Amino acid sequence: MEEKTRKTITVISEDGSTETVEVIVAFKFKDTEQEYIVYTQNEKDQNNNITVYVSKIVDEDGTSRLAGIEDDNEWSKIKEVLRELAKGE
Q1: Can you give the pTM of this predicted structure?
Q2: What confidence score (pLDDT) does residue 89 get?
Q3: Residues facing 41 on adjacent strands
Q4: Domain-located, residue 2
Q5: Are residues 35 and 26 in contact, defined by beta-carbon separation less than 8 angstroms?
Q6: Domain membership of residue 59 as a residue range
Q7: Per the domain annotation, does 79 fall within a domain?
Q8: Is residue 47 domain-resident?
Q9: What distance in Å separates the CA atoms of residue 56 and residue 50, rounded to the nearest whole number?
Q10: C-beta neighbour count of 33 within 10 angstroms
C-alpha cells in the first residue's frame, strides 16, 4: 500500500510564533480569483473529530498571509466546497 505524502506549511502567528500545519486542500473561486486553504493542526474535539481551519490566502508584496473569513456569502460558498469534498472521500 502506498503511503500518502502529507503537505505541510509553516504558519507565523501575529505574535511571531511558528507552527507547522497539515494542508488538507487549497482551492480558488473562478469568479473572484480568491484562494483559500483548509488545514489542520491535528487537534481533536470532544467528539474525537479532527478540527480543521479555513483561511483565505492574501498576497501582499509577494508574500502570502492567511486571513480570516468574515463575509457570510463567502462562508456559504466555502461550506458548499467543503460539502462536495466530503462527498468525494
Answers
A1: 0.82
A2: 62
A3: none
A4: no
A5: yes
A6: 8-88
A7: yes
A8: yes
A9: 20
A10: 7
C-alpha cell at position 21? 500545519
The overall average pLDDT reported for the chain is 89
DSSP collapsed to 3 states, the chain: CCCCCCCEEEEECCCCCEEEEEEEEEEECCCCCCEEEEEEEEEECCCCCEEEEEEEEEEECCEEEEECCCCHHHHHHHHHHHHHHHHHC
pLDDT tens figures, 43-70: 999 999 889 999 999 998 888 889 999 9
Residue 3 lies in a domain: no
Residue showing cell 507565523: 12
Count the domains in the chain: 1
- Which tens digits make up the pLDDT trace of 1-56? 555 678 999 988 889 899 999 999 999 999 999 999 999 999 999 999 889 999 99
Rounded-to-integer distance, Cα 49 and Cα 42, Å: 9
